[in-house]
Amino acid sequence: MNESKIYVSKDAKEFHIMGKDFSYVFYILKNGQLGHLYYGKRLNPSNIYSQKAYYETYGNTCTVFENDESFSLDIIPQEYPSYGTSDYRQPAIEVIQEDGSHITDFKYDSYTIYEGKKQLYKLPSTFVHKDKDSITLEIKLKDYIINATLILSYTLFKESDVLVRSSKIINNGNKDLQIKRLLSMSIDFKSSNYEMLTLTGSWTRERHIQTYPLHKGLQSTSSTRGTSSTAFNPFFALKDNLANEHTGEVYGFNLIYSGNHIGQVEVDTFLQARVQQGINYFNFSFLLKKGDELESPESILVYSCNGLNKMSQKFHKFYLNHLIPPKWANCARPILVNNWEATYFDFNEDKILELAGLSKKIGAELFVLDDGWFGKRNNDKTSLGDWYCNLDKIPSGLKGLSEKICNMGLDFGIWIEPEMISKESELFKKYPNWVLQFKNRKLTTGRNQYVLDLSNPAVVKHIYETISDLIIKTEYISYIKWDFNRTLTEVGSLSFEPKHQQEIAHRYVMGMYELYSLLTKKFPHILIEGCAAGGGRFDSGILAYSPQIWTSDNTDAIERLKIQYGTSICYPISSMGAHVSTTPNHQLNRLTSLKTRGDVAVFGVLGYELDLTSLPDSELECIKKQIKWYKEHRKLILEGTFYRLKSPFDGVNGNTAWSVVSEDKNNALVGYYKVLENTTHLPPNLKIYGLKPDKIYHLIGTNLTFDGLELENLGIEINSNLLSKLALIEDFKGDFKSIILEFKAK
Ligand code: DGJ
Questions:
Q1: Which residue among 343, 359, 418, 433 is least enclosed by CB atoms within 10 Å?
Q2: What is the whole-number distance in angstroms between the Cα of residue 532 and the centre of ligand 1?
């Protein structure tokens, strides 16, 4: 097997990070800055590549040395560039100094290599289980004029074949430094012959896949909303023009950050591509006094020479092994019933107990009481911040109710939205200054609520104590749905001086992580499901605390195909909350069968969110069977390798397929979804990837067998013969139909 290692040339001028599949090479340029040489398919370890790097002379460029016309930063691929001394492309760092200059010149100082990896100080980070599983290279650079140190960190996770980058700046001088930009990573590719893939969307249309060829100039995916957002996820990929799900070169980049982010590619006039990712520099500035430092979030770099599926699988496994809390990463997450779409705000204790009783009957394991249980919350205009039980609705109180539910043999979970405050609340009356704001500006509402100022440690402390108190007093809480229903406006804090106001968006995110960290440390047994008006904060920062995230408020099974398919580009299916809701669907009024709704939701963390009390016995029976089936297959679904087989974004009818394959490749489940019926042509054979070529697989429920090679190359025909063997002929007629095929090695 290819050995993963970091090679440093004898003269300590070239650094070659070598994963199982990739090489990443950079070196020290003759002006002392860092040059980027290569990121791509693995190279030989023995070569010194930078010795062969050659720079052409181009007219009309500015050069660093008077006697060397070829050494222009305008053209030379760099590792962590800055603006102001002949490079006119986007910088990775920008520092405003007291004299008004923003020029930096960070020159190589030294390097260190060690086994293991350091954690970031105030931001979530990836971790290792054993130091020897990873190796870290730290490059120290110094700018002697401004007296600052820059540290670039590269951790190679050997088994996962993933590279993690981050950067840190330290002010060693007596003068203040305003950090305007400190990106997590920057890479200059010699070619721009790639397509950019981003995950874009809106409320109820999260993480749809968008792909476009790179063009000259700047292209980006970013957020200014204070949160990672539904609009543009902090993930993007570059793929070669011929790459697809199964073949071709793909580079994936994901930022472990839940606030304003940017991923950008600048194709320069020489058709080189500068690829960068980090905290969005728009409206950002961070003041560093003597001795202060600022760290960037981690950027996760994944290379695949086997298409998008391989890239996604590397991200999935990596997050499960090195980001998501180990207690939750690979465990059977409870099947839940949530009362939101069953009742919205209109419930009382009897209704909840009735729902819980039926939840137990159908085999669910956890009952979640959603929004509306606290303060005077009978609609969304009031009470956020007043986290005590509404006894008019729940006379037994939260403790009494949860005890009753637990006595039924269910776990109990609760909804909170800790970062928010209603104008109409006791908390707002008491602490109007605790809201994000600028004194002279009107406060903007979103869903009738304001955002608490989490940049202020006193606010974080208050929320922490209030929620801790709630958990302790209720006793039976084992799950929390942590919601966040609006984006940030008037991002200012009354607890900071004006010169710090551009730090607030970032300080907010750090405060939110602090809150998550305090609560998860104090209550490690509580499973937290992240949520933000659906999947508005579905990012790897949240996954560091919360192994599952509510994927979307859109519970329509057909819409979910695109949402879950797109989300799987970067995030494991075990991180996606996926619920069966009622029909007609509340968001779209679309009618789909219980089977189709179930067949989509089982490829995620399964839940039910509909009024069980209004269902006929036949449907309850059907749900019971779905749950039983899920329990039998849950390990395979949540821990298996996920493959996207057919994209809802391609073709005319949106038909979709995906699969999970067990680690030993003996078991596979394939979900096939026919979105629109057609009368004119048979769908092409469905090719099933990831099985052992020479193994014989039995299609459960039939007498059919296939070998792995056949399944991958010839594929399987979803025809009436197959459907009749599975007794699904009638079920599969018309629009919005689905089947799940189960293969077992003989
Ligand atoms: C938005 C969430 O996404 C929903 O599931 C639900 O919890 C509501 N908020 C409650 O206000």
A1: 433
A2: 8
- What pLDDT shows up at residue 681? 66
- CA dist 42 and 399 (Å) reads 58
Q: Which atom of ligand 1 is nearest to the CA of 552?
A: 3
Ligand 1 atom nearest to 531, measured from its CA? 3
Q: For the chain, percent helix, then strand, then coil, each to nearest 5?
A: 25, 30, 45
443-502: per-residue pLDDT in tens? 999 999 999 999 999 999 999 999 999 999 999 999 999 999 999 999 999 999 999 999
- The verdict on the CB of residue 340 being under 6 Å from ligand 1 is yes
Q: Is 466 helix (H, G, I), strand (E, B) or coil?
A: helix
Task: Determine the residue of 414, 447, 482, 483 to mutate for testing ligand 1's pocket, defined as the one with the most ligand atoms within 8 A of the Cβ atom.
Answer: 483
Contact 675, 343 (CB under 8 A): no
Edge to edge, what strands does the sheet with 34-41 contain?
Answer: 5-8, 14-18, 22-28, 34-41
Is residue 35 within 8 A of residue 53, CB to CB? The reply is: yes
- Report CA(697)–ligand 1 centroid distance (Å): 42
- Which residues are the active-site residues? 483, 553
Summarised one tens digit per residue, pLDDT across range 154-211 is 999 999 999 999 999 999 999 999 999 999 999 999 999 999 999 999 999 999 999 9
Could you tell me if the CB of 38 is within 6 A of ligand 1? no
> From the CB of 143, is ligand 1 less than 6 Å away?
no
pLDDT at position 181 = 98
